[in-house]
Design goal:
Layout (H helix, E strand, L loop, with lengths): L13 E7 L17 E4 L15 H6 L1 H8 L3 E4 L26 H13 L3 E6 L9 H12 L11 E2 L6 E3 L6 E3 L14 H17 L3 E4 L13 H15 L4 E4 L5 H8 L5 E2 L2 H5 L2 H8 L2 H18 L25 H12 L6 E3 L46 H6 L4 H14 L2 H4 L1 E4 L6 E8 L2 E8 L5 E4 L13 E3 L9 E3 L2 E4 L9
Parallel strand pairs: 2-3, 2-11, 3-4, 4-8, 8-9, 9-10
Antiparallel strand pairs: 1-14, 1-16, 5-7, 6-7, 12-13, 13-14, 15-18, 17-18
């Protein structure tokens, strides 16, 4: 097997990126530490280091060279690593522990050290909207309510003696409690100052261990009876984290409408996942309609709204995660389409999040377990591959493993690497001020201003060759093609002649 690639920081291409003016070579981990390309790992399904059929922390450590050098990301988000009775771990029983199925705190420290040595920042899931009903806080509260004695833990949750909407009944008792998801996940009362003290202690513990920030779970459900209080809570949590580590990075899950997410940014939390683009199917709609111009306008409008809400806002685009159907399972996915859709969102401003296996075209839809299948390292050597989650029934036989894709220059994996290399070479892609260009309909085109440099990116979303006059776009400087990406994998390369840019199908170009 070929060694994991150390970074060369050369560029290859998909969408045609045009650069006007000089572009400095970027460092391995970016010019601004807040900007990263993140990789989401569902821990139990990623890599098994001891052969027991379950992914673990040591398995992830063993794959860090793949993550950093073969793929090319410089950030990791781990789904919950805390002790929990479920396979997904989103019902925590001990916020300051490591689930024994995943390893020990020493294993986690080794993983952090190895990740940081490679320039990778690490986020962990912070699940504070609810706990497990096996958490000592909840079990102590239930004991007190059953015996009629006072306990501070009763106010850690929302209890009642009668059923209410969103409430669950505790077994065969007359005790009811708020549980927005399932009965086994009682909602925490984050308005309680004592609960906030607990949360402050939790984030302090992990930040002192060396984690670089948190992914915030289920933010839209934090205050079920007082959604207007969310901004105040976010302000408090962000301040609490940054007082401990000024560089702590938070990204929130807010599966909701655009106006609400924009209001969340006013709190100062730097990022929330771009669910509006997912819910509205914005990228796939543009691909199906071969309408890059409308997509560019939508991206500009969204980022302007975020900037208006908070100047330090950083969008967090994605096309897959552990809760949604994988792209390769739907929408007439093929290799070219997979590459093009990846290029679109990876080249959007902000911090993109890649779901493990997305880069090799893994499939999975339907029940949650099917979206969390084992990472396909190889179809012939399954040494480090975990077992599928219980009840998973998806057929993965058509997925080409990492070992084969690594050696194939035209693979999806190598294409992801090429796009991420491009972003290192041109920092303006993630960081600059985005402005849509009035291009031909098929072209997703924009300019990005950053550090007194201007970058122009053009992506042809159609299956036909398209030409674009640079003069008509107001580009007056003399420019030449710098870099290209070719999702279709053929020899049709974008060209620039007499200030007319020619984009073959599914290509793009870089000029400066």
């Amino acid at each position: 097997m070929r060694r994991a690639r150390k970074p060369t920081w050369g560029v290859i291409g998909i969408a045609f990126v045009m650069i006007l003016g000089g572009c400095a070579q970027g460092p391995q981990v970016g010019l601004v530490d807040e900007y990263r390309n993140y990789y989401q790992i569902f821990v139990g399904s990623f890599a098994d280091s001891d052969g027991n059929g379950l992914g673990d922390l040591n398995g992830i450590t063993e794959k860090l060279d793949y993550i950093r050098y073969d793929l090319g990301v410089d950030g990791i988000w781990l789904t919950p690593i805390n002790p929990s009775p479920t396979y997904h771990k989103y019902d925590v029983t001990n916020y300051k522990g490591i689930d024994p199925q995943f390893g020990t705190i020493l294993d986690f420290r080794r993983f952090l050290e190895e990740a940081h040595e490679r320039g990778i920042r690490v986020l962990i899931d912070l699940v504070i909207q609810h706990t497990s009903w096996e958490h000592p806080w909840f079990t102590e509260a239930i004991k007190a309510l059953k015996s009629g004695v006072e306990s501070p833990y009763v106010d850690y949750y929302y209890f009642g003696s009668e059923p209410h909407e969103g409430y669950a009944q505790y077994k065969d008792t007359n005790i009811y409690y708020d549980a927005e998801f399932v009965a086994e996940m009682p909602d925490l009362n984050v308005k309680n100052p004592v609960v906030r003290e607990e949360i402050a202690s939790i984030v302090e513990f992990w930040l002192n261990e060396g984690v670089d920030g948190f992914r915030l779970d289920a933010t839209t459900h934090l205050l079920p009876s007082d959604p207007g209080g969310e901004k105040e809570f976010f302000e408090w949590l962000n301040a609490t984290c940054t007082q401990i580590n000024p560089d702590a990075y938070l990204v929130g899950e807010a599966w909701t409408w655009a106006d609400r997410i924009v209001s969340y940014y006013e709190s100062g939390i730097p990022s929330f996942f771009n669910y509006p683009f997912y819910v509205d199917d914005t990228i796939n709609t543009a691909l199906q309609a071969k309408d890059g111009a409308t997509l560019a306008t939508a991206i500009e409008a969204w980022n302007q709204r975020l900037d208006d809400a908070h100047p330090s806002a950083i969008d967090a685009p994605f096309i897959s995660n552990h809760d949604i159907n994988r792209p390769a399972s739907h929408l007439a996915w093929n290799l070219t389409r997979g590459k093009l859709s990846a290029a679109i969102y990876l080249l959007m401003p902000g911090n993109p999040f890649i779901y493990y296996g997305e880069e090799i075209g893994m499939v999975g839809s339907g029940i949650d377990q099917n979206k969390r299948m084992p990472m396909v390292w190889s179809t012939t050597d399954t040494t480090s591959m975990p077992n599928p989650p219980h009840y998973a029934d998806y057929d993965m036989s058509a997925v080409v493993g990492v070992d084969v894709q690594r050696e194939d220059p035209g693979s999806l994996l190598n294409f992801y690497h090429e796009v991420l290399e491009l972003k290192v070479k041109y920092p303006a892609i993630a960081r600059g001020k985005y402005a849509a260009l009035d291009t031909e309909r098929a072209i997703l085109g924009w300019r990005s201003d950053y550090n007194k440099r201007v970058i122009y990116v053009f992506e042809n979303l159609s299956d036909a060759t398209v030409t674009q006059s640079l003069t008509d776009l107001g580009i007056k400087s003399a420019v030449t093609v710098r870099d290209t990406l070719l999702p279709a994998g053929d020899d049709q390369i974008p060209t620039l002649d007499k200030r007319v840019l020619t984009l073959p199908p599914y290509t793009v170009a870089v000029v400066g």
